[in-house]
Amino acid sequence: MEASIQSSNKTFLGHPIGLFVLFFTELWERFSYYGMRAILVLYLVSETSGDNPGMGWSDSSALALYGWYTMFVYLATIPGGILADRYLGQRKSVMLGGLLLCFGHGILAVEALWAFYTGLAFIVLGVGCLKGNISTMVGGLYGKDDHNKRDMGFYIFYMGINIGAAVSALLVGYIGEVYNWHYGFGLAGIGMAIGQIGYWKGQKYLTHVGNLIKLEPKKEDKSENLFLQIFKKANSLIGFSITALIGIYIGINGDWNYGLLFIAIAFAIGFAIVVYNDGNKIEKDRILVTYLAFLIVIVFWGAFEQAGGLMNLYASQKTDLALGSFMVPASWFQSANAIYILIFATIIGSFWIWWKSKGYEHSSLFKMAVGVVIMGLGFGFMAIAANEVSYDASGNITQKSAMYWLLLAYLFHTIGELCASPVALSFITKLAPARWGAFMMGAYFAATGLGNKVAGSIGENAAEVGDFWTFSGITIFCTIFGVLVILIIKPLKRLVHDAE
């Protein structure tokens, strides 16, 4: 026991060694996830014949699956958090999540339809157990008053995420796209196995964090029996009923996929109104602003997550990938975002510090809105690219667009992400009442998942609308949306009641 305590107190570069255990675990988890993500839709639409056969799906079907899959990945963090809080603790939940991911990626390496769906299911469950819990463990490594070190610890951890994402698209993408899709899936699994072994070996440095905390249940805890509370107040019942009826109507008219999604959203809306009803005047104001922040999150990721779907297919099908005699794998563009983050994270962070020192508007909502606008403008480059593509009378492509348009688009997307994403979760935790903190954390990830589903739905309809109008529409909508939020910043800041 004493040896475990001594190990957990050891430091490296001024930080607990446990941070670097979590750093490498997350690095390899992101290597496996983003590597698989880089080739998923390309594998789905690849022809069933040829040297490297795929599934032969249509673009719209592939993007639909991509939307559902990425949505469930984020939604799974909610039961993953409940599992950690009530049964296993975060440390054991991360171990379980890593094992599930190893199984999932390993199964994807098998060339069979059952293996494909089974592997995706294991990955969803694995990410759900690991993603939220490992981030919480990073915070647990530091004392309550050690703010600066904690912030730097999260920065180091964030760099691990992007190193894994950058390297994975280059390695897994190349192996999968050039040699064999299933070799790529297998390589992603090997990466996760390396991370899992490192996490297992590093347990002695993590004995003091992520353990199960057993609390005595409190009868007066209003966060229990949320389902029943929806039906106790008129406004929550009305919000639930209207949304559920929309879902039933959509289902009866032939699309139960989206019908069931709306029914699930109905429960979320009911819960959200219950939380609002429970607050005092100041809390209600803050909760309203929190819900607006969730809407910003949905809009942002609904556009941003075209990266792994529609833009991935665009790179493969409509971009001139010739670099001299070398053909650049389309999946390599999936590394652009992570590489840009590694280059520009400190620059953007320093800019906002300078901006604040000049006395300019620097609230979290302002940064999120600016991030949406900048990210949306990135799709303007994609609209220009789409205009470069030429077709013959039969609809065959005769001229493709240049690669630099994709690189410019991803640059703007990354700058937008660095403005919006880092502050969003912090802002929500500042506004949420403490007794509803866990619910708001889950709601944040649910909003992110819903944004991913929106991204898939936009991709599904791109074939009918056309690339130019799809990309232009995203640019126009995100710009207008972001500007509208900026225009109402002052009244929104009053509703925040100095929480920042």
What name does the CATH topology of the largest domain carry? Growth Hormone, Chain: A
What is the N-to-C succession of helices and strands?
Answer: HEEHHHHHHHHHHHHEEHHEEHHHH
Which percent range describes the beta-strand content?
A: under 5%
- The gyration radius over C-alpha positions equals 23 Å
CATH H level, superfamily name of the largest domain: MFS general substrate transporter like domains
Shape: globular
Question: What is the number of E strands?
Answer: 6
Query: Which oligomeric state applies?
Result: single chain
Percent helix: over 70%
Low-confidence stretches: 1-5
CATH class of the largest domain: Mainly Alpha
Domain tally: 3
- Distance from N terminus to C terminus (CA atoms, Å) equals 41 Å
Largest sheet: 2 strands, antiparallel
Mean pLDDT: 87
